[in-house]
Design goal:
Layout: H1 7-27, H2 56-70, H3 89-101, H4 112-129, E1 138-142, H5 145-160, H6 164-167, E2 176-181, H7 187-194, E3 202-205, H8 215-227, E4 231-238, H9 250-260, E5 263-268, E6 292-295, E7 308-312, H10 315-322, H11 354-363, H12 365-388, E8 392-394, E9 402-407, H13 414-429, E10 437-441, E11 444-450, H14 458-483
Parallel strand pairs: 2-3, 2-4, 4-5, 5-6
Antiparallel strand pairs: 1-7, 6-7, 8-9, 9-11, 10-11
Helix pairs in contact: 1-2, 3-11, 5-7, 5-10, 13-14
This protein binds pyridoxal-5'-phosphate (PLP).
């Protein structure tokens, strides 16, 4: 009975776990991402809740085996997936430490040092944005990009319509509107909906051939809304779209935002990480002009979930949007920073920053410089392979380590190309060894691969290319035999 273990048991369980995690990490360069298709049939789990416990070592062993033997392995070097990385090992250790110490990040009074460490990380990131010296800024860690984007738009709303925080959006007296790329992330739809603006208040604007939102069309949309009596209040620039990794022209959108008195939020959940590279930070040129920025260390910066950040160079807006006064939250005498519960969506909050802090302390910024450069080179060489493959063609420009490509089917209807792309993704992922996906970019079907694991090397891409070529050959042979 009870949850406590004696010292010996704690050690034994801990060592058992760390040995397995260590073994798991050793396996990642070669580990299949998941089980072969025919074995991926997990029935509903129907066990009853245990009334009494069982032997801890046995249960731990069972659960570890289940999760590792049957799980989906995002950290594998063969996961060319959405934006989820292999976590750094020290981040894994940091997560265990955070769970053990369980700092309560809601208030400074119960997390003095933890809150300070977090603030230091926020400062490091803001300085990489370029907000050092004269620009005041602040920010807070979030559960991820969804919460950070929501926060960015909440800040914009509170800043542009201060009365709306207390009196509601109806007090604005007109429809507030937001402008973003047609390829921007759907957390923005959720955000405007949850802020009470209505999902239609998000104007998804058409793109140019580089899959960037067209600033001229954004301006047209703003003018139309003004003429209709609406109240434009924010533009969202995306730095690294989910589908193709396209980066909007942030500087042009910043200029537009300034001209019309709008808030500029940059959704840099993925591509914002380019600020960690001296060589490639030009990719997000203009990011320093943003009023607020989303950045997700659990994407390009190799952190385990959850780690997002919202940064703003209008610190007061954080308090305007999220500040509340309570009698029960403990106070600190002479506080050196504001309590997190007053500047963010969350209340009780875990320390999502320690893993990033520890990774930076152990590996340094230059490790990210190297990661970003290497992954960009790998993706560029994969794009070169696509161009010369004879079977595929690029579906969008490769800007970040994401490559969109399509089966070459000259003259074929879009629906047939889509069916072929999907069949190839299915074939390549059937044995579970590697993972790629299918999506649409600018309404066209594409196969999507992404270099996201720091363990992925040229040889993994060569194996993927071989699998893609074999799948394309198989698809063509089947099509010929269907016609015969
Ligand atoms: C561009 C972009 N913004 C925001 C998000 C949402 O981030 P999260 O999944 O961390 O909530 C994503 C998720 O992939 C994304 O790609």
């Amino acid at each position: 009975m009870g949850f406590d273990f004696d010292e010996k048991t704690r050690r034994e369980l801990g060592y058992k776990l760390i040995d397995q995690v260590n073994e798991y990490f050793s396996s990642l360069p070669e580990r299949p991402v998941q089980l072969p298709l025919e074995q991926r049939t997990f029935g509903a789990l129907t066990d009853r809740m245990p009334e009494v416990g069982d032997d801890a070592a046995r249960v731990l062993e069972d659960v570890i085996r289940e999760m590792i033997d049957k799980g989906f392995h995002v950290p594998s070097a063969n996961y060319f997936g959405l934006m989820n990385p292999t976590p750094t090992y020290v981040a894994v250790l940091a997560e265990a430490l955070v769970a053990a110490i369980n700092p309560q990040l809601a208030t400074l009074a119960r997390s003095q040092l933890a809150s300070k460490i977090e603030k230091e990380v926020v400062r490091w990131i803001g300085e990489r944005v370029g907000w050092n010296g004269t620009t005041a800024f602040d920010g807070t860690f979030t559960s991820g990009g969804n919460e950070a984007n929501f926060s960015g738009l909440a800040l914009a709303l509170a800043h542009k319509f201060p009365g709306a925080v207390e009196d509601g959006v109806a007090s604005i007296g007109a429809q507030p509107t937001v402008y973003a790329s047609g390829e921007s992330h759907h957390s923005l739809d959720k955000s405007v909906g949850l802020l009470g603006l209505g999902r239609k208040s998000l104007r998804r604007v058409e793109l140019n051939e580089r899959v960037q939102v067209d600033p001229g069309l954004v301006e047209d949309a703003i003018k139309q809304d003004l003429a209709a009596g609406h109240k434009p209040f924010a533009i969202v620039a995306t730095a690294g779209t989910t589908n193709s990794g396209a980066i909007d022209d942030i500087a042009a959108l910043a200029e537009l935002a300034q001209r019309y008195g709008l808030w500029l939020h940059v959704d840099g959940a993925y591509g914002g990480a380019a600020i960690f590279s001296e060589k490639h930070r030009g990719l997000v040129r203009g990011i320093e002009k943003a009023d607020s920025i989303t950045l997700d260390p659990h994407k390009w910066l190799s952190m385990p979930f959850a780690a997002g950040i919202i940064l703003t160079r209008h610190p007061q807006a954080l308090e305007d949007a999220f500040g509340v006064v309570t009698p029960y939250m403990p106070r600190t005498k002479n506080p050196t920073q504001i309590d997190n519960f007053k500047i963010g969506v969350q209340w009780s909050r875990r320390m999502n920053s320690l893993k990033f802090y520890l990774t930076l302390r152990v590996h340094g910024r230059k490790a990210y410089e190297e990661l970003i450069d290497r992954q960009l080179r790998l993706a560029a060489s994969f794009a070169d392979w696509v161009r010369g493959s004879g079977s595929f063609e690029l579906g969008a420009p490769q800007v970040l380590p994401i490559v969109n490509f399509r089966v070459q089917m000259p003259g074929a209807a879009e629906a047939d190309v889509e069916a072929a792309n999907q069949a190839i993704v299915e074939e390549v992922t059937r044995d579970g060894v590697r993972w790629i996906s299918h999506t649409h970019v600018n309404r066209r079907s594409v196969i999507r691969m992404m270099v996201i694991s720091y363990l992925t090397e040229e040889r993994h891409l060569t194996q993927l290319q071989e699998a893609l070529t074999a799948a394309a050959d198989k698809f063509r042979a089947a099509a010929v035999s269907r016609r015969a």
